[in-house]
């Protein structure tokens, strides 16, 4: 099974990583107001849309 284990060396690699704060307004813009054209799929944890952020990065938005 792949994924992040709880071994100390795996956790240590995550230290110092920061994630950007993205406002709801930015998500609306990135997904064209959660347009059906950007719909990727849905499951038991919600719907996922394709979004293109202001810096050009493509992201899955949930």
UniProtKB/TrEMBL annotation:
Coiled coil: none annotated. It is found in: Cell membrane. It is a single-pass membrane protein. Its main location: membrane. ATP binds at residue 62. It catalyses: L-seryl-[protein] + ATP = O-phospho-L-seryl-[protein] + ADP + H(+); L-threonyl-[protein] + ATP = O-phospho-L-threonyl-[protein] + ADP + H(+). It comes from the Eukaryota. InterPro entries: Kinase-like_dom_sf (IPR011009), PERK1-13-like (IPR047117), Prot_kinase_dom (IPR000719), Protein_kinase_ATP_BS (IPR017441). GO terms for molecular function: ATP binding; protein serine/threonine kinase activity. Keywords: ATP-binding, Kinase, Membrane, Nucleotide-binding, Serine/threonine-protein kinase, Transferase, Transmembrane, Transmembrane helix. GO terms for cellular component: plasma membrane. The keyword Flavoprotein does not apply. This is non-specific serine/threonine protein kinase.
């Amino acid at each position: 099974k792949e994924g992040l284990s709880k071994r100390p060396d795996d956790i240590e690699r995550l230290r110092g990583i920061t994630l950007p704060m993205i406002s709801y307004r930015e998500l609306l813009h990135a997904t064209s107001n959660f347009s059906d054209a950007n719909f990727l799929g849905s499951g038991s944890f919600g719907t996922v849309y394709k979004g293109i952020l202001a810096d050009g990065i493509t992201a899955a938005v949930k």
